[in-house]
Design brief:
Number of helices: 6
Order of helices and strands: HHEEEEHEEHEEEEEEHEEH
Oligomer: single chain
Largest sheet: 6 strands, mixed
Helix content: 25-40%
Length: 296
């Protein structure tokens, strides 16, 4: 049984109950059709990871960095790579081993929304030296619990981790004048990434031939849906990318409704993310100050 088949298995009675409830603008968890589950953020104090929870869905994103030679066709840009892992402990539908088709599809959408949209300034990852080096970033998203809408949660976890990430301060010098000196955080304060805009993925499950849109669906709503549509937008109401995976099609009017709703949701999600980051920064400064005070 594939991940998609195993994950989509619900009984006929469950499907009919979900459809009947939605016809009355009610969902199993008490939300209205356009309501999202409020995301909760938990940042680590090592400047490299964040765990995001949306309802019972939890994803941890970890950012790692290494100095590498740049790609020949992009000598002034540092690469930004994404990987998504569906852990078997998150759902019995997921199998250990190499990422499956669904995980690869999620990773590609995150890449389109965060890298190809120019959200992260990759030229700021360049390190000038005799042997040109750049910071190569890798974001690994680990699905810890699957309660539906993994795509949005993985996307948001990757964005939050990149916003919280700090790369080491680098200096070019030494005896040769071209030596790359990487300063530890105890010596020099690490530097945040340059992020130009903040895209957010908003997924809708489609019901009633596309006339009923259900934002941030649970896994049972995904299984009962006739299709899905994901819109990646930033608070400036710019569409960064669109993903229409499968199922029924959408008319231009139905699609524009998805875009309008996604724009409002993006504003709310980014506002919550910024507020959580402000709280994290206060805790981070306190911990680092206490560490310096004790000589650690």
């Amino acid at each position: 049984m594939s991940q998609r088949d195993a994950d989509s298995f619900i009984s006929k009675n469950e499907r009919e109950f979900i459809l009947k409830a939605l016809a009355e603008d009610v969902r199993l968890d008490g939300r209205r059709p356009n309501d999202m589950r409020k995301p909760k953020f938990q940042f680590s104090l090592d400047d490299r990871s964040c765990t995001v929870a949306q309802g019972s869905t939890r994803v941890m994103a970890v950012v790692s960095a290494a100095l590498e030679a740049p790609y020949p066709d992009r000598p002034s840009e540092g690469p930004l790579r994404f990987n998504v892992e569906f852990s078997p402990m998150a759902s019995p539908a997921f199998e250990p081993g190499k990422p499956g088709e669904d995980a690869i599809q999620v990773a590609r959408l995150i890449e389109r929304g965060l890298r190809q949209s120019g959200a992260v300034d990759q030229e700021a990852l360049w390190v000038g030296a005799g042997r040109v080096r750049v910071w190569a970033l890798r974001v690994d998203c680990h699905v810890l619990d699957h309660g539906g809408n993994l795509l949005d949660c993985c996307f948001l976890a990757a964005l939050a981790a990149l916003m919280a990430f700090r790369k080491p301060e680098v200096e070019v010098g030494g005896e040769s004048g071209s030596e790359i000196i990487v300063h530890p955080p105890e010596v020099r304060e690490p530097v945040p990434l340059t992020i130009h805009h903040l895209p957010v993925a908003v997924t809708f499950a489609l019901f009633q031939a596309g006339d009923m849109l259900v934002a941030d669906p649970t896994w049972k709503e995904e299984a009962a849906a006739a299709g899905s549509c994901t819109v990646v937008m930033n608070p400036a109401q710019e569409v960064c990318c669109v993903h229409k995976a499968d199922g029924i099609g959408l008319s231009p009017e139905q699609f524009m409704r998805c875009v309008r709703l996604a724009g409002r949701q993006a504003e709310e999600v980014v506002a919550g993310l910024k507020k959580a980051l402000e709280g994290h920064e206060v805790a981070r400064v306190q911990v680092r100050g206490a560490g310096r005070g004790t000589g650690r």
